[in-house]
C-alpha cells in the first residue's frame, strides 16, 4: 500500500508524537504506512501526490484568522506551503482530511470566512449529521448524532461556496464539510480518545483555550464522557483511499 502523509505543526514533541500515534491507531496503520512531516520544524519537502494514498492535516496551535502582523515567521511559511499544496490537492481532487486546523486552512483556501464567532471550549459536543453527510462514504454507518471532542478558537463562520456541509453542532454550524468528492475537513477531532484529550489539556493549559487553573476540571469532565464514534471516520478514509 502507498503510505498516507500526516502534516503536523505541534512544536511539543510529546504532543506531536501522541497525535501521530492516534492517527496510526484509529487509521489502522503501521508506522511504515503513515509518513509524518513536522512543518513547524522545517520547510515542507516536495510532495509528489502519486507517492501517497492520501493526506492528513493534524491540529495546530496556529489560528488562520489571527492578524497577519501577529503571526510568526514559521506560521506564515506553513500557511504558504499548505496553500500551495491545497492548490494541487483541490485541483486533482486528491484524498485529504484536515482535522480542526484543517477547517480553517481548507476553509480559507476556498474563500470561507474564518473567525472566532463559533469557537468552542475543550470538551465533547454533540455532532449532527445532515442528509448529505449521511450519504457520504466517510460517515456511512455512523449514527445521525454522536459525541466528538472539540477545542478551537476559530471556525468557519460561512461555508465555502465550493463545499458541501456534512455535519454541524449546536454551537458551531460547520463541523465537517467536503470539497469536490475527496477533500474533507472536520472541526472536531476524529483522532482523539479521552486519554489523548486529557494529554492535550495538560500540554495546552497555558495556550488560552481555558483558564490554566481549571485544567484538572477539564480533564475530569473529559473522563466523564463517552466518545467512540468519530474514530471510524479515520478508518473509513484509510479504507476508501488506500492505494496499491
UniProtKB/TrEMBL annotation:
Q: Which residues form a coiled coil?
A: none
The molecular function terms in GO held by this entry are: transferase activity
Q: Keywords for this entry?
A: Glutamine amidotransferase, Transferase
Q: Which GO terms describe its cellular component?
A: cytosol
InterPro entries attached here?
A: ChyE-like, Class_I_gatase-like, GATASE
Superkingdom, taxonomy of origin: Bacteria
Q: List the NCBIfam families.
A: PRK07567.1
Which protein, by its recorded name, is this? Glutamine amidotransferase
Glutamine amidotransferase domain segment(s):
48-192
SUPFAM superfamilies given in the database record? Class I glutamine amidotransferase-like (SSF52317)
Kindly indicate where the leader peptide sits in this chain: none
Amino acid at each position: 500500500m502507498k503510505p498516507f502523509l500526516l502534516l503536523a505543526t505541534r512544536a511539543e514533541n510529546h504532543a506531536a508524537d501522541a497525535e501521530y500515534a492516534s492517527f496510526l491507531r484509529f487509521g489502522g496503520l503501521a508506522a511504515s504506512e503513515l509518513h509524518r512531516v513536522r512543518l513547524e520544524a522545517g520547510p515542507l519537502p516536495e510532495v509528489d501526490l502519486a507517492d501517497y494514498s492520501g493526506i492528513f492535516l493534524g491540529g495546530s496551535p496556529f489560528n488562520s484568522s489571527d492578524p497577519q502582523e501577529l503571526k510568526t515567521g514559521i506560521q506564515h511559511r506553513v500557511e504558504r506551503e499548505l496553500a500551495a499544496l491545497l492548490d494541487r490537492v483541490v485541483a486533482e481532487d486528491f484524498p485529504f482530511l484536515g482535522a480542526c486546523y484543517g477547517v480553517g486552512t481548507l476553509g480559507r483556501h476556498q474563500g470561507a470566512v474564518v473567525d472566532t464567532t463559533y469557537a468552542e471550549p475543550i470538551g465533547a459536543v454533540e455532532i449532527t449529521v445532515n442528509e448529505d453527510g449521511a450519504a457520504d462514504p466517510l460517515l456511512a454507518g455512523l449514527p445521525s448524532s454522536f459525541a466528538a471532542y472539540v477545542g478551537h478558537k476559530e471556525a468557519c463562520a460561512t461555508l465555502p461556496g465550493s463545499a458541501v456541509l456534512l455535519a454541524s453542532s449546536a454551537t458551531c454550524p460547520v463541523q465537517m464539510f467536503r470539497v469536490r468528492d475527496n477533500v474533507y475537513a472536520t472541526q472536531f477531532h476524529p483522532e482523539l480518545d479521552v486519554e489523548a484529550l486529557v494529554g492535550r489539556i495538560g500540554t495546552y493549559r497555558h495556550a488560552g483555550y481555558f483558564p490554566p487553573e481549571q485544567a484538572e476540571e477539564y480533564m475530569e469532565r473529559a473522563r466523564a464522557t463517552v466518545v467512540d464514534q468519530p474514530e471510524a471516520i479515520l478508518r473509513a478514509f484509510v479504507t476508501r483511499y488506500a492505494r496499491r
